[in-house]
Design brief:
This protein is 26% helix and 28% strand. The chain is α+β, with helices and mostly antiparallel strands. The chain has a domain of 137 residues. Strands 1, 2, 3, 4, 5, 6, 7, 8 and 9 form a 9-stranded mixed beta sheet that branches. It starts with a helix and ends with a helix. The N terminus is likely disordered.
């Protein structure tokens, strides 16, 4: 009995030790990033090696990403991101990349945590986003933060391939509008109004026929009178 109780207690302690880590990973989306060649992120170029990516512990803004050294001991940079939605979540971490000008390292575009239907798309400083937009022929998010302390409240916009800036279009829920009523089936459509009744009966025959009928009647009467006299 003592051995069983000791085993149960050990399992309980192990579960208590692991539970905080599981909750922490779900909260901060901690992810190991392995870089095999230089990789561009906002304001930094990561050398080949391992890094730790996490969401900053901020309940008010869940789109600030921190990149640490592989031992998770030293902060390298803090990045402002915007939501990037996907239709089909996967069970593994996925990254997206921007095409960059020749001779420059690839630029990290988005990070998707396993099971999430949205990820973090990185906003680059204007000088970097203009170069990426020109190479990728696309619109790239850009941030106007002047320092990492401004990221929580910084304005985010976009830059296209010509360098033209535009405000970021915030994702909003489309207003629900009632659909146009479908046309009624033939049986349910209103019947046409009846034509107004004619004021006079239509003339269906010529008066000559009536004259002929009266003549025959007179001839018959004349013949009967003649027979009665004889």
């Amino acid at each position: 009995m003592n051995r069983i109780a000791l085993a149960v207690a050990s399992i309980g302690l192990l579960g208590a030790a692991l539970a905080p880590n599981v909750r922490a990973d779900e909260w901060n989306k901690k992810t190991i990033l392995t870089v095999n060649e230089p990789l561009q992120v906002p304001n930094k170029v990561l050398a080949p090696g391992k890094y730790v990516m996490k969401l900053m512990d901020s309940p008010s803004n869940r789109h600030i990403v921190q990149i640490f050294t592989g031992d998770d001991m030293h902060l390298i940079t803090t990045v402002l991101a915007i939501p990037n939605y996907r239709l089909q979540p996967t069970g593994k971490t996925q990254f997206g990349f921007w095409e960059t000008p020749p001779g420059q390292p690839r630029a990290l575009r988005a990070w998707f945590y396993p099971g999430d239907n949205f990820g973090q798309e990185f906003a680059y400083p204007k000088s970097e986003s203009v170069a990426i937009a020109a190479a990728a022929k696309a619109t790239v998010p850009t941030t106007y933060a002047e320092s990492e302390t401004d990221l929580a409240t910084a304005r985010v916009g976009t830059v296209n391939e010509t360098g033209q800036e535009a405000p970021m279009q915030e994702s909003t829920v489309a207003e629900t509008t009632a659909p146009a009523p479908a046309p009624a089936p033939e049986a349910e459509r209103a019947a046409p109004e009846p034509a107004p009744a004619p004021q006079e009966l239509p003339k269906t025959a010529s008066p000559l026929a009536m004259f002929a009928l009266a003549g025959l009647f007179s001839l018959g009467v004349f013949s009967m009178l003649r027979l009665a006299r004889s």
